[in-house]
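INFO worker-7 received task bundle
INFO bundle size: 2
INFO processing item 0
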Amino acid sequence: MKTGKNGGMFSLGVSWGFRSRQELIESGADLLIDHPSELISHVIDH
C-alpha cells in the first residue's frame, strides 16, 4: 500500500490478503474489496 501511495498510484486493498482491513485503511487504501468479483466490476466501471 505504501509503495503505491508513495508513487501516486490508485491503491486497492483486499480483505483476504495478509493485512487486516484496518491496516489497509490506515495505510491509505483508495478502495477495499471483499471478493475477487468486486475487482472485475471496479475495473469495468472505471
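INFO item 0 finished
INFO processing item 1
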Amino acid sequence: MEQRNAKANRIRGLTSDYGIVAPREIVQLRRAVPVWLEDINCGLSDRFRRLLVGLWEDLRSLDDRIHELDREIAELAASDPVARRLQQLRGVGPMVATALIATVGNARQFANGRQMAASLGLTPKQNSSGGKERLLGISKRGDAYVRCLLIHGARAMIQMARRRTDALSLWVMRIVSKRHPNVAAVALANKTARIAWAMITRGTDYQPELAAY
C-alpha cells in the first residue's frame, strides 16, 4: 500500500510541473495517465513520457496486486467461522477480522477482554501528579498493524454514529462531545477489541444491545 501511494504521489508531483492536476483517487489516476500520454498537445517531452509510462506501469502492477490480496483476504475471512462472526462488529471487515485472529488466535491467553485490548496497545497510559490522574495517550504496546486497523475502523464508525441512535452510537457520541475525536476512536477501538475477545472465546454472535456496557 505504501509503495503504491508513493508511486501515485510521484506521478502527481511530476505532472504538476507541467501544470497537470492529477486526481487524488488511485482509480481515476490510473485512467488519467493514458489520456495524458496520448495527448500530443499537453507539452510532455519524450523523456518525461517514458518516465511516466514506467511509473504508470509500476502503479498499475502494485494496485492490481493489492486488489488480488484483498480478494484472497476476503475469501479467507469468508471461510473462517470466527472471522465471519467478527465481521458482525461495525468497523470490522475481512482485513481486520483476519489480522486480529492471526494475532490473538483463540484469545484464551487473555483472562478477559481488557487484557486483550491492553495487549494491542489500546489501553490509555496514566500518570498521577499532585493527586490528579492524567491520560497520556495509548500505550502502543503489541501489534501496531492490528491496533491501527481497529482505530481506523473506529473512526469510520464514529462518522456513521453521528446519524444513528443505537446504544453504541450514543455511547461513542457522548465521548466525542467531551473529548478529542482521536480519544473517542481509541475508546471505541478498545471496546471493539473487548467485544471481539468475548465473541472469540465464547463462540457467540455480536449482541448490539450489550455493546454500550
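INFO item 1 finished
INFO post-check item 1: The first strand starts at residue 124 and ends at 129.
INFO post-check item 1: Confidence is low (pLDDT under 50) at residues 126-137.
INFO worker-7 idle
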